[in-house]
Amino acid sequence: MLPEFRTFKGIACTQMSLREKINLNNLPSHIAIIMDGNGRWAQEKGEDRLYGHLHGVESVRNIVEGAAELGVKYLTLYAFSTENWDRPEYEVTGLMELLVDTIKKEVPTLNKNNIKLHVIGDIEMLPENARHELAEALAETSTNTGLNLIMALSYSSRWELVNAVKNIAAEVQQGSIAPEDITQQTLQQHLSTSQFPDPELMIRTSGEYRISNFLLYQLAYAELYFTNTRWPDFRKENLYEAILDFQHRERRFGKTGEQVKA
Ligand code: IPE
Ligand code: IPE
Ligand code: MG
Predict the structure, then answer these.
(1) Catalytic site residue 84?
(2) Structure confidence at residue 7 (pLDDT)
(3) Which residues, including other chains, have CB under 8 Å from residue 217's CB and lie 6 or more apart?
(4) Which pLDDT does position 14 carry in this prediction?
(5) pLDDT at 9
(6) Neighbouring C-alpha atoms within 13 Å toward the C-beta of 199
(7) What is the pLDDT of residue 5?
(8) How many domains does the chain have?
(9) Catalytic residue list contains 36
(10) Which of 68, 128, 130, 215 has the most neighbouring CB atoms within 10 Å?
(11) Residues spanned by the domain of 66
């Protein structure tokens, strides 16, 4: 690899770092990540899958910090899906312990970096101690005004959509909304992401090209970015690469390229 030359005593850089190439005026305001590949990463090293999850936490720290430094407003991390409950019991238990432990330890760092934590998903499914730690972390970071960190835990999009439909149906039954008044906005307001704008960039690590029940409605016009890098190896530089790729896309929203350029 060529050496990088940074500004030194007023002498201009001859090679820009990835971070310097990012146009800060065209940052995706919401990045969503499917953090995949922990298990394979560990197994490839002859280790237990939980070893991969443990190292995945290091990537979470690094990426949260990287997103906050850039000034990204919303970062959603898919940490555990509704379907992941069907994994072997030891893995589920290990993941839950890791979750409780991490949340507890990370709150001071979140506060130091002005990061507000949010959770989306079927939280009732989580063990009592995890719910307790989560509730405390949410309360303790609730007045922060920087990055909004949204953890998708025990989350699935179909679960979320069914819930939304149930709640809208109940409102119709109570007479607070008429069926003909239901709009896209009504549906949006009943999703667990109602407070957040739709993701503009969705990243999935580890070489799988699928959505796995993640934000099906919200990703309607997201730019999708797939990388073979396993989640425990994913670092700020990888995030910068994804953002740069995003910045080279032409987002047309159904229009023609000519219309968009005009
Ligand atoms: C992602 O890594 C973390 C969770 C789903 C909890 P995986 O555990 O899915 O790792 P792979 O995909 O099996 O390698
Ligand atoms: C998606 O990964 C869920 C999370 C990253 C939390 P999975 O590993 O569960 O997805 P599939 O089973 O490969 O589709
Ligand atoms: Mg996986």
Answers:
(1) yes
(2) 58
(3) 157, 160, 161, 187, 188, 191
(4) 64
(5) 56
(6) 27
(7) 53
(8) 1
(9) yes
(10) 215
(11) 26-155+198-248
Does the CB atom of residue 84 touch ligand 1 within 6 A? yes
Domain assignment of residue 166, yes or no? no
Which stretches in the chain have pLDDT values below 50? 1
* Residue in 40, 91, 153 to alter for ligand 1 test, most ligand atoms within 8 A of Cβ: 40
What is the sign, positive or negative, of the torsion defined by CA atoms of 109, 226, 239, 202? negative
Measured from the Cα of 49, ligand 1's closest atom is 8
Question: Taking the model in full, what pTM does it have?
Answer: 0.95
Give the active site residue among 23, 25, 62, 84: 84
Q: What is the rounded (10 degree) CA torsion for 64, 223, 213, 142?
A: 30
CATH of the domain at 40: 3.40.1180.10
**b/e sequence 173-195, b meaning 16+ C-beta within 10 Å:** eeeeeeeeeeeeeeeeebbbbee
In a domain, 193, yes or no: no
Q: Residue 8: its pLDDT value, please?
A: 54
Looking at the domain assignment, is residue 241 inside a domain?
yes
**145 within domain boundaries:** yes
